[in-house]
Specification:
- This protein is α/β, with parallel strands linked by helices.
- Helices cover 31% and strands 25% of the residues.
- It has eight helices and twelve strands.
- The strands form three sheets. It has a six-stranded mixed sheet, with helices on both faces. It has a four-stranded antiparallel sheet with strand order 2-1-4-5, covered by helices on one side.
- Strand 1 and strand 2 form a beta hairpin.
- The protein is globular.
- It starts with 5 loop residues before the first strand and ends in a 26-residue tail after the last helix.
């Protein structure tokens, strides 16, 4: 039986007793790029945190390859194939690239001594797969954000991840870097990896996504093939009503001055 890579059923979650997600059921299939969309506060970040086990769900189930999962930590989720590339990178900036890549699972010689040579070799191999150039022994703090992000992607690949979540990955990238990232994402998709992509940039979403899932007020609204949706239809699903005029003319008129500040030093 061919199971979806990742499936949430009737998932509920929140913070300090405050519900955020309510009975959310979403499939993340193999070999596809699934975009999750919604206005700020819709619950998409909370949903992703339950997938990566940064947040424990309060109800419902999550299954991976047809088996219900109960990861106890984000590390356990990563070790079992669910990785997340965060918008805000949380890395050991005073350590090297290869240290960040293999931290907590250093390759050893004879099961005793950490092998810098093996670390460097494996790092070069993964960088080669991703068509990334870089020095494994460079200190993370000396790298631009785009290269640090590639280290996080390389780390996910090194775990042979089945699901990789990309949270606003292009927010700090140049146009050339964005194109490289899209090539990497497509390569991961072709290898059978399920991609969850979060972005507010409609042109990106319509370009790379296979499926688009829209959330609103902590609930699932719709999941549709991207090729069947227009920007206007996506916005309608997000806000729950027709938007006949996205940029209405300003009708307000300035009133009397209520505060006037001058010559402040």
């Amino acid at each position: 039986m061919n199971h979806p890579e990742l499936l949430s059923e009737n998932l509920s979650a929140g913070y300090d007793g405050q519900p955020i997600l309510s009975n959310v059921s979403i499939k993340i299939p193999q070999n596809k790029i699934s975009v999750i969309l919604g206005a700020n506060g819709c619950g998409k970040s909370t949903l992703l945190k339950t997938f990566a086990r940064l947040l424990k769900p309060e109800g419902g189930t999550i299954t991976l390859d047809g088996k219900e999962i109960h990861f106890k930590s984000s590390k356990e989720a990563l070790e079992n194939g669910v990785a997340m590339v965060h918008q805000e990178l949380n890395q050991a900036l005073t350590r090297t690239v290869q240290d960040n890549l293999w931290l907590g699972r250093y390759p050893k010689m004879g099961g005793i001594m950490v092998s810098e040579r093996i670390m460097a070799k494996r790092t070069h191999e993964i960088f080669g797969t991703l068509e990334v150039s870089g020095n494994p022994k460079a200190v993370m703090s000396t790298l631009p954000v785009s290269q640090r992000q590639m280290v996080e992607i390389a780390k996910a690949v090194s775990y042979d991840s089945k699901i990789i979540v990309f949270d606003e990955p292009t927010s700090s990238l140049t146009e050339t870097e964005v194109e490289h990232l899209f090539r990497i994402i497509d390569m991961l998709k072709q290898k059978g990896c399920g991609i969850i992509y979060i972005s507010h940039k409609m042109d990106e979403i319509l370009r790379i996504s296979d499926d688009i899932t829209v959330m609103r007020d902590g609930q699932w609204v719709a999941t549709r093939p991207a090729k069947e949706l227009t920007m206007e239809e996506i916005i309608k699903l997000m806000v729950g009503r027709e938007l006949t005029n996205r940029f209405p003319p300003k009708t307000n008129k300035p009133g009397d001055v209520i505060l006037d500040v001058q010559h402040i030093a």
